[in-house]
């Protein structure tokens, strides 16, 4: 339920960059039987978006943005650990190569996507952040990936997703992989324009889209 007061408290801790309290409340929420994704979706993602808006409006500065990101990463680690522990190791047969594109160090969202994919039985090769298109393609070929997923958080780095589509085509590899794109500035329209196979709004949507593509 979105009106659980714990969400507001957790969100406030994140926005005010209180890392210790963020860790504590996340652990308590999970220990009390809460779904780890709920605190992420109802408290921390709205919280970090608010931080981003404040930063965008010049009401909060880079050092505070970095502290909030640090607190977010602590929450993400706790949530991811809980997610990974909550499922069996059954594999559903799909292999995904995932990366945040070149020039972009935003990886909080991608790390959530990785955990949820693993929790859903997908085999994930996470290349990290700031990854060149050539490296992504090399890994996808090497591990015979079914799907290539990319994350871009900057309007300036989104074009790497287009470069990936073009590189796949020019290397005659476009039919070998499905592609899915995500990240806050990315839209279904962008995905269609560059010729990606799918757009994912969030991690859960990503799983749905990937499972559809694998079928
Ligand atoms: C945290 C943060 C940072 C942290 C990143 C830490 C880290 N390890 O990730 C730090 C402090 C390092 C940072 C740096 C910068 N940042 Co910053 N940052 C943010 C902030 C506040 C939150 C991003 C985030 O983590 N969101 C939460 C996650 C969970 O959401 P998400 O990434 O969108 O992911 C979800 C979905 O999109 C989806 N998804 C995402 N990717 C994928 C991929 C696949 C395959 C799938 C299926 C799904 C999927 O699933 C995820 C989970 O649901 C945003 C604001 C915002 N609203 O986005 C600004 C923001 C992105 N940053 C911005 C800027 C400008 C910068 C800097 C240039 C600042 C500077 N002057 O140095 C640098 C850039 C550094 C670089 N080269 O990359 C701007 C970008 C503006 C623009 N037009 O491009 C924003 C929008 C802030 C703003 N309002 O101005 N930033």
Care to give the gist of this entry?
The protein has two domains: 5-82, Methyltransferase, Methionine Synthase (B12-binding Domains), Chain A, domain 1 (Orthogonal Bundle), CATH 1.10.1240; 95-214, Rossmann fold (3-Layer(aba) Sandwich), CATH 3.40.50. 57% of the residues lie in helices and 10% in strands.
Walk me through what this model shows:
By secondary structure, this protein is an alpha/beta fold. The chain contains 9 helices and 5 strands. A 5-stranded parallel β-sheet has the order 2-1-3-4-5, sandwiched between helices. Helix 5 (108-119) links the parallel strand 1 and strand 2 (123-126). It is globular and about 50 Å long. The structure holds cobalamin.
Q: Would you tell me the structural class of the helices and strands?
A: alpha/beta
Largest sheet: 5 strands, parallel
The proportion of residues forming helix, as a percent range, comes to 55-70%
Helix-strand string: HHHHEHEHEHEHEH
Strand content: 5-15%
The tally of domains stands at 2
Question: What is the CATH topology of the largest domain?
Answer: Rossmann fold
Give the strand tally: 5
Apparent shape = globular
Oligomerization status of the protein chains: single chain
Name of the CATH architecture of the largest domain: 3-Layer(aba) Sandwich
